[in-house]
Design a protein that fits this description.
Layout lengths: L3 H12 L2 H16 L5 H15 L9 H11 L6 H14 L15 H13 L6 H14 L8 H14 L6 H16 L48 H20 L1 H4 L9 H4 L17 H19 L7 H24 L2 H17 L9 H15 L3 H16 L3 H13 L1 H4 L3 H6 L1 H10 L1 H15 L5 H9 L1 H13 L17 H8 L4 H7 L12 H6 L7 H21 L5 H14 L9 H19 L3 H4 L1 H8 L9 H14 L10 H19 L12 H17 L4 H14 L5 H4 L4 H19 L2 H8 L3 H4 L1 H5 L5 H14 L7
Helix pairs in contact: 1-3, 2-3, 2-4, 3-5, 4-5, 5-6, 6-8, 7-8, 8-10, 9-10, 9-13, 10-14, 13-14, 14-15, 14-16, 15-16, 16-17, 17-21, 18-21, 18-22, 21-22, 21-24, 22-28, 23-28, 23-29, 24-28, 28-30, 29-30, 30-33, 33-35, 34-35, 35-36, 35-38, 35-39, 36-38
InterPro entries: AP5Z1 (IPR028222), AP5Z1_ARM (IPR055450), TPR_AP5Z1_C (IPR056856), TPR_AP5Z1_N (IPR056857)
Protein name: Adaptor related protein complex 5 subunit zeta 1
Pfam families: SPG48, TPR_AP5Z1, TPR_AP5Z1_C
Length: 810
């Protein structure tokens, strides 16, 4: 969430029109052409960057301005801050055909870094990625001290490896592996010199001190990213950057990356000043560069795990320890997949690490890579993976649902490792109530992630419970808010909306009488049972205005679409019937968040039709339930979409063509129910408050009644009389108020439909042909064949209807 001032600036930037932007670009062009690039230039570039980055679509800049931005980026004398802004603006424009930056035209390593960032943002249009990679490699091959600083180029190389792994040749990959070994294992253990010293400072005062550990002790082992000091040397910075790209490089250079295992490379002695690590797997022999890098990477990760045991003196260092632990475990996972000999050397420390962090809420993010490690190697390592997953899916979402970073990483972990769950996929599926806590509290950023995850979570055994949970998601958000508010040890910065006061809701949350309902919503696993939560909807109505609840309510329709797309792939006939009944039952039982019911009803109506299309016999099998649903007009206006869909489904599928069990008695019962419903929503009684009924409901009712009458011709006189009354009713002055905002247009649509249907009923055979076409008529052949084309049939029917003649042509 942005502050009010930031929101105002963003709004102003988005409102700037193209003409204003053109004038502003002209002003910037003049400033960039001046000899002195002063504060005005800096301020203008900052404003331009805000303007082009505040919108989702690309802003078009004047070509002169773009050319000057590129030229300024290449100036050796230009202040660094201006060059950074120029590069940021050009990146926001990318990909663009108007950019003409070239890697070879710059020499300063800082400029190379900025130019490369723009070229990589362009994509690989003209093999820019390969050119950037080769440029960095040339700098790597140069051993001259006056060459470009690799400190600024190594991050670019890491990006190139990810974007275009095939850029590097075999000898270049070997060279980079050797350099990474140097940087990771042999960085200096002395702090860097100050940038400048006074005239009166003594040589003793200028001597660098030793590197220290997180707890302040002097480091006695090699330098890592967790080593501390006041200033760092160039090789120490390269050590940090080498570790940041280590995992990506291992994945690229491993057996699955280059396609071949390492072979002995005797040039190790000539190409690197390193000694061989004394490890059990490498003792007594020299290792090829890539095997050597894996060995050094293993040692580096082991050292990081040891350093994470030290008590950090600053909170920032403590956070860094946890982040490095996550990366170290991920690197070990890669190493063990590439070389199983590392597995047995890693297990003892990783088991100990898991035992240490599983009880520490602050280290919960470390559990995710550990769980992935055990997923990958649990069987070979004889680890009780089930216990790891139970703790992961039970405790963490329940206690840490309010952490947005953890929520995203947790869902990503589930998505990325579905192929590894295997026999444990059932544990994941049963844990969906806990996973939904992440979704309820962080719905905007996690909606797309759950849309992708839902197909794996949906199971025929828990589908109904999951649908209930999705419909109750805004209510769950409100309950989680109350849970945080009633926490005995709230955080220093409240995680809930402090502007919302809901003392009555807090009292209800603590009331033992409602504990069963609250505990059901907060259950960690699927229980196989469902609860009616209507009492909670009333209790928690004051929370409906909470911003977080409103955000969650907006996400539910998208999630419902994803759920039905998945569940229809696994549902049998019985489950389809149950889902249809659930849709009808929940249509009037939703949490009263503003606008929530209307959005959900729109989805439920379309999905009810999809279920009927999937199983047309559903209408006959659920006839009693559908009659009960249509027997009431309560909330008809709010449920207009769903009522229309049910009425249409009855008219379409209540036929022997779809189910031989369909009887005349059933058709007559539905006709009577729909006739009564149409009468209720259209009658004019001055003493009664009429329910405002959308015209589409009335036209759907009339059409379905006509369809039913065409299938049971004894009903044609009643249907004709009803349609005549509807045509007369539309001319009544009260009709406009009956249809609310639709007014005269709605009345005209009803009158037109009634006239068309009346004309059809005058010729029952024609009505049956038009309203209940056979499957042959619906087949593609009937539309393509010249002799039996549907347009020909329709023209014939039109003539007959207009003349009110018999079926014979005349």
């Amino acid at each position: 969430m942005f502050s009010a001032g930031a929101e105002s600036l963003l709004h102003q930037a988005r409102e700037i029109q193209d003409e204003e932007l053109k004038k502003f670009c002209s002003r910037i062009s003049k400033l960039l052409q001046a000899e002195d690039l002063g504060p005005d230039t800096l301020d203008s570039l900052q404003r331009l960057f805000l303007i082009i980055s505040a919108t989702k679509y690309n802003r078009r800049l004047e070509k002169t301005c773009v050319d000057l931005l590129q030229a300024t980026l290449g100036l050796a004398t230009c202040p660094e801050q201006l060059q950074v802004l120029c590069a940021a603006i050009l990146r926001e424009m990318s990909p663009s055909d108007s950019l003409s930056l070239v890697w070879d035209h710059t020499q300063n390593s800082r400029q190379l870094n900025l130019v490369a960032s723009v070229l990589l943002a362009q994509g690989d249009r003209n093999e820019e990625v390969s050119a950037v990679g080769q440029g960095v490699l040339r700098a790597l091959e140069s051993r001259q001290p006056e060459g470009p600083s690799l400190r600024y180029l190594l991050p670019i190389m890491a990006k190139v490896v990810v974007l275009s792994p095939g850029t590097l040749q075999e000898d270049q990959a070997t060279l980079l592996s050797k350099r990474l070994v140097d940087w990771l294992r042999y960085a200096s253990l002395q702090q860097g010199l100050p940038h400048s010293s006074s005239f009166f400072s003594t040589p003793r005062a200028r001597q660098p001190g030793p590197i220290t550990e997180m707890d302040g002790a002097v480091a006695t082992d090699f330098f890592t990213v967790l080593s501390t000091g006041h200033r760092f040397t160039e090789d120490q910075w390269l050590n940090v950057q080498a570790f940041s790209m280590l995992r990506a490089w291992l994945l690229h250079s491993g057996p699955e990356g280059l396609g071949t295992l390492d072979t002995d490379d005797r040039s190790e002695q000539e190409g690197s000043t390193l000694s061989v690590i004394s490890a059990t797997s490498s003792a007594g022999r020299l290792l090829p560069p890539r095997e050597r890098l894996r060995e050094v990477a293993f040692e580096y990760c082991q050292r990081l795990i040891e350093q994470s045991n030290r008590r950090a003196l600053r909170k920032g260092d403590s956070d860094l320890q946890k982040a490095c632990l996550v990366e170290a475990v991920l690197v070990l996972d890669v190493l063990c997949r590439q070389d199983p000999s590392f597995l047995y050397r890693s297990l003892s420390c990783l088991k100990a690490l898991h035992g240490r962090v599983r009880g520490d809420p602050a280290s919960v993010r470390v559990l995710l890579p550990l769980a992935r490690f055990f997923l990958s190697h649990g069987e070979a390592a004889a680890v009780d993976s089930e216990a790891v997953y139970q703790h992961l899916f039970t405790r963490i979402p329940l206690e840490q649902f309010h952490s947005p970073m953890l929520a995203f990483e947790f869902v990503q972990f589930c998505r990325d490792n579905l192929h590894l769950f295997g026999g444990h996929l059932g544990t994941l599926r049963l844990s969906f109530p806990n996973l939904f806590k992440f979704l309820a509290w962080n719905s905007p950023p996690l909606t797309s992630e759950f849309v992708a995850l839902l197909p794996a979570l949906v199971d025929a055994g828990t589908a109904l419970e999951m649908l209930h949970a999705l419909l109750d998601l805004p209510c769950l958000t409100a309950v989680l808010d109350l849970q945080l508010r009633s926490s005995p040890a709230p955080s220093e910065r409240p995680l809930w909306d402090t502007s919302l006061r809901a003392p009555s809701c807090l009292e209800a949350f603590r009331d033992p009488k409602f504990q069963g309902l609250f505990q059901y919503l907060l259950r960690p696993k699927a229980s196989g049972a469902t609860e009616r939560l209507v009492p909670l909807y009333q209790l928690l109505q004051p929370m409906a205005g909470c911003a977080r609840v409103a955000q969650c309510a907006e996400a539910v329709p998208t999630l419902l679409q994803a759920f039905f797309s998945a569940v229809t792939q696994v549902a049998d006939g019985a489950l389809i019937n149950q889902l249809a009944l659930l849709l009808l039952g929940r249509s009037d039982s939703l949490y009263p968040a503003p606008g929530y019911a209307a959005r959900v009803h729109s989805v439920l109506s379309s999905q009810f039709l999809a279920l009927c299309t999937l199983k047309p016999s559903l209408v006959v099998e659920l006839a009693r339930d559908l009659l009960e649903f249509l027997g009431s007009v309560n909330g008809l206006r709010s449920r207009a979409n769903l009522v229309t869909s049910v009425v249409w489904a009855v008219g379409e599928y209540l036929s022997v063509a779809y189910d031989r069990r369909c009887t005349v008695e059933q058709i007559n019962k539905f006709f009577e129910a729909l006739e009564a419903l149409l009468f209720e929503v259209t009658q004019c009684r001055p003493s009664a408050a009429l329910p405002r009924c959308p015209p589409k409901v009335v036209t759907a009712l009339m059409t379905t009644l006509t369809k039913l009458a065409s299938r049971s011709q004894d009903l044609i006189p009643r249907a004709s009389l009803l349609l005549s009354k509807m045509r007369t009713l539309t001319q009544s002055p009260a009709t406009g108020s009956m249809h609310g905002e639709h007014g005269e247009e709605g009345a005209e649509a009803i009158c037109t439909r009634a006239t068309e249907l009346l004309t059809l009923l005058k010729m029952p055979s024609v009505a049956q042909f038009v309203l209940t076409p056979s499957t042959e008529v619906c087949s593609p052949r009937y539309h393509r064949d010249v002799n039996t084309a549907l347009p020909l049939a329709l023209r014939t029917v039109s003539r007959l209807v207009e003349r009110e003649a018999s079926l014979l042509p005349g």
